[in-house]
Design goal:
Blueprint: H1 8-19, H2 25-32, H3 36-49, H4 62-93
Length: 96
């Protein structure tokens, strides 16, 4: 069974139904066909992250973006280190 993907706008509209209209999570769940757990998770994410919540496909959160950047830097630095190790071993074994 494929996982259903909801747009940022859909999630925000669902949360507005809870906050602005005063509907319960159970009512919104039944109306939209979304599980109550999803709505609770969306509400928690919106409270914790504010406008950064629900970045969408291809858009990483600032924390994920930094993690991606740092992992790429670690890969680059390891490659440089390995190259320097090989060069040092080469020059140590071949006297000039």
């Amino acid at each position: 069974m494929a996982r259903k993907v909801y747009t940022r706008e859909f999630k925000l509209q669902a949360l507005r139904m809870i906050t602005d209209k005063g509907l319960s999570i159970a009512d919104v769940s039944r109306q939209l066909g979304v599980t109550e757990g999803c709505l609770r998770n969306w509400k928690k994410a919106a409270e914790e992250q504010g406008d950064a919540a629900f970045p969408g496909q291809g858009k990483l959160s600032p924390a994920d973006d930094e993690l991606h950047r740092l992992r790429a830097e670690v890969r680059r630095l390891r490659a440089e280190r390995d190259l320097l190790k090989k060069a040092a071993a080469y020059f140590a074994s071949h006297p000039t």
